[in-house]
Amino acid sequence: METADMFYKTPVTSPSSVTLKDASASAAGGKVAGKTIHSVLTSNGSPYQNFQGRIMPKESKKHPGDTIHSIFTCGGDYYQDFQSRIMYGTYKLVQQMPGGDKLTGFTRILHRMKPDELMNEIPTFRANPLHPKCDEWCDFPVADRPNAVRQWMEAVDRDPSMVKGAWILLLECDYVWMRPVQAPDAYDAKAVGFQFMFDYIQPSHPTAVPIMNKLSGGIDTARIPSSGPAPVLIRFTDLKGVVPEWERLAAAIEADEQAVKQLDWVREMYAWDIALALRNVTLVTETPPHSRLIAQPPHDLTLGDAAMLHYTWGTLYHENKKEIWRWEKRDYTAPEKALKVPMLPMPPQPWKQGWTLQDGLPVTKELHELMTAMIGQMNKAIAIMPDLSSARV
């Protein structure tokens, strides 16, 4: 159970005036230099639409072209385990929806020294971590992500049956599946994968340009997308080319004190973006409400075209300046909440005009309906989750 190539299966029963450092803080905390997440995280579009993509060779057509194998990385701490169980639970729910049969594979890539409690619940590949201390706690757990994905891909090279879809969908722990992702035909040369645009990733920001030039060898920063390694729908062949560059660039940033300081919590996301540019990989970078992957409440008020919701920020309702309801993932870090996930409190009903969020902006009726749908979907998954309390390691 300690080798990195083992595969565990379970039968399915930001605006340009914002500094980079301030913008990265928004990803972690939801506010930027006194600005709210709403005022900072606006959608500006992306110039990254013009590179030549590649298709999978004809002899590798083992799966229908519109099938998807989903992957995500995790360090196995209880904070991430709580989120991972909900994400996988809602994934199984949407598999039962029309189009869910196209979600044909799923792998949690666990970068951890030893197996954890979720091995028998979520299909898991265990990678040997670069930073074993992250098994308990570390200040930048995603530092292991590129290396862990590489280990998984090397295992796939040895056993191609580990991949069960024509596309690879890279995810994060804190997603809620609301409906299946719909993929184009991977074997169509005109079909292009897609990813999500994060406005706080700003490669052309004046303070970022010197670092981008240093890391990329001086390529035009307009070629570097404002995205990250999740969510991304990409062909396996393209991912195989991007991952070594992603890993190399992430390591180069970690070795550069100034780059770490400047790029802060989103530095590994920049490594992904530069790697895409260096490999000339075509991905359409999409923004809500037209993103086919995620929407991010409370910044985004509707699901739009998205298949999933990303709850990176908390959503706190206030009435007359008094908190009346909250959804905040940082409230769920204890082992007992990860191993026996509690039902989550639903937003108060019915919606009332005058409610405000923690940043003072109104709780609109459409946002309230979105939050009600999201928490309701999470509770549907929680209701059928096994109690893993006795499995604690």
Describe the structure.
This protein has 393 residues and is of the alpha/beta class. Helix content is 30%, strand content 16%. The protein folds into two domains: 68-286, Alpha-Beta Complex (Spore Coat Polysaccharide Biosynthesis Protein SpsA, Chain A), CATH 3.90.550.10; 308-383, no CATH class. The radius of gyration is 20 Å and the shape is globular. It has an eight-stranded mixed beta sheet. Strands 8-13-12 form a three-stranded mixed beta sheet. A two-stranded antiparallel ribbon has the order 2-3. The protein has helices at 20-29, 37-40, 78-95, 145-158, 209-216, 236-254, 257-263, 267-279, 335-339, 365-383, and strands at residues 7-8, 31-32, 35-36, 68-74, 103-111, 124-127, 167-171, 175-177, 193-196, 232-235, 283-286, 294-295, 308-310, 315-319, 322-327. It contains ten helices and 15 strands.
Describe the protein's topology:
Blueprint: E1 7-8, H1 20-29, E2 31-32, E3 35-36, H2 37-40, E4 68-74, H3 78-95, E5 103-111, E6 124-127, H4 145-158, E7 167-171, E8 175-177, E9 193-196, H5 209-216, E10 232-235, H6 236-254, H7 257-263, H8 267-279, E11 283-286, E12 294-295, E13 308-310, E14 315-319, E15 322-327, H9 335-339, H10 365-383
Parallel strand pairs: 4-5, 4-7, 5-6, 9-11, 12-13
Antiparallel strand pairs: 1-6, 2-3, 7-10, 8-13, 9-10, 14-15
